[in-house]
Amino acid sequence: MVSTAYSYYPGCSLTSSATEYDISFRKVVEALGIQLDELEDWNCCGASPAPHHKAETLGVLLPGRNLHIAGASHDAIVAPCAGCYNRLKYAQYKLAGDQDIREQTSEVFQAEVRYQTEVLNIVQMLNREITPEALRERSQGRLANIRIGAYYGCLLTRPADILGFDSPRDPRKMRPLMEATGAEVPHFPFKTECCGSYMGLARKDILLKASHRIIEVAVSTGLDALVTACPLCHQNLDLRQEQINKAMGTSLRMPVLYFSQLIGLAMGISPEELELDALVVQPDMDRWLKGVA
Amino acid sequence: MIPLSETLSQGRELVAEIEHRSGQKVADCYQCGTCSSTCAAADAFDYPPHMFMRLLQLGAVDRAMASTTGQLCYDCMTCSSRCPIRIDVADVIETTKNIADEQGIRESERGLRLFRNLFLKNVRRHGRLHEASLLAWFNLKSGKLTNDLSLVPLILRRKNVRIVQPRIKDRAQVRRIFQRAKERPRW
User: Fold this and answer.
1) Are A12 and B168 a contacting pair at CB < 8 A?
2) Cβ contacts (< 8 Å) between B120 and chain A: which residues?
3) Min CA distance, A137 vs chain B (Å)?
4) Helices marked H in A184-272 — which ranges?
């Protein structure tokens, strides 16, 4: 029996350093009247440390197990974490394209592998469930006081031939819903730059430089906030913003929101319910929502 | 500068292996430099991506393998997405690094290797990554005890943060997955 609800794959980050992403996503989905079924007994997708280039096994088997579980009950699985989304799509691509990989995977899983469940990221899913017109109707220009930048980073769009989501050089799929909040969404030139990825523990020096460039350009673009769909980008840009400033001798300040938090605000969900107070760099909510009843 | 005297035939075999595994032709690169100008980590590399490609074209594989480029590339794939002739530069770099690692030519940088190993060990044992445990183990093993400790209270003020290590039920299957990957790391 296939459910019309979405299978929901939160992934590891959304249970620890990014719980506000999980909470705000669930709130938005609930407000839209959509059912989410958390994937049963899900495992880590392997993220960046699991080798996955072209031929490697671990990068298919780990996310493949999640696909296999979802395939038993759901037509579509949504993974708000850009990294989890990326790895699920990669496993699906490898499984769909190679019978030998399917057979070997089935052998490890001790069952014929199910891999055809549709894999969606948060932007795709929300674009499907609410039109910009409908969101505009709900938001009534609620966020008209602010300028925000769509920050895509790497894993949401690259490699484009596997993900098939948006342009890897000039992605635009976040923008229509972001504009429907009432906010101004100017071109953000660093929208596809890398934040420094997983280098935080071992090579902070490299990471902080990469993240600094993004924050610096966001500030000089005159933005009030960046919006992301990736917990690792968020960790590097928000959680580490003080480290960035210290390392680079700057005093930049740039709030970074999750896509679900922004959409939730536009829908009239309160900042408290969307866990905005979890952010290290706090947006000035009084100014953001000035004039909103 | 790379002396042309390094264009040794002995590097050819390894270049062929890199090309085979990555599915890319290094000779196609015409050195426009777009990859390097767009690389967020190029400052940290001894050879930025286009020079790395040039080393392989010249057969100077030893230099490419010994370089920091493969070690420090974090695989953001920006270079690959911007290459005007669609060479998957990131894959060439990663493949070269993997072969260097396999052949004992150059091990990954210690801290990064430690991070990857501890990450995967945590997932292998429990099925899910626990970020706090990873941080604790990394700091213990690397000797950098205070590394990122200032971030901990910032994380803990969130709701629903998992304080204890999460574990999945079917850990046997996760063990099978890792066992298989150990026996056959490549398909």
Assistant:
1) no
2) 46, 49-50, 58
3) 31
4) 204-220, 231-234, 241-248, 259-266
Q: What is the tens place of the pLDDT at every residue in B40-98?
A: 999 999 999 999 999 999 999 999 999 999 989 988 999 999 999 999 999 999 999 98
Residue corresponding to tokens 């997955």: B177
- Residue A234 structure tokens: 């968020």
Signed CA dihedral, B132, B136, B137, B139: sign only:
positive
B88 touches chain A (CB under 8 A): yes
Question: Which residues of A fall within a CB distance of 8 Å from B111?
Answer: 201-203
pLDDT tens, position by position, A119-166: 999 999 999 999 999 999 999 999 999 999 999 999 999 999 999 999
> Residues near B120 by Cβ (< 8 Å), separated by ≥ 6?
A46, A49, A50, A58, B178
Residues B115, A100: C-beta atoms closer than 8 Å: no
pLDDT in tens, A175-209: 999 999 999 999 999 999 999 999 999 999 999 99
The tokens for A126 are 């929300």
Domains and CATH numbers, chain A: 6-122 (1.20.1050.140), 131-288 (3.40.50.11810)
Q: Is the ipTM of this complex over 0.90?
A: yes
Planar angle of CA A48, A166, A227, nearest 5 degrees: 70
Cα radius of gyration (chain B): 20
Q: Write down the pLDDT at residue B11.
A: 83
Tokens (6 digits) for B169: 């039920």
Residues of A in contact with B176 (CB under 8 A): 108
Q: What is the pTM of this model?
A: 0.95
Indicate the residue type of A105.
T
For residue A241, what is the nearest residue in chain B, using CA coordinates? B151
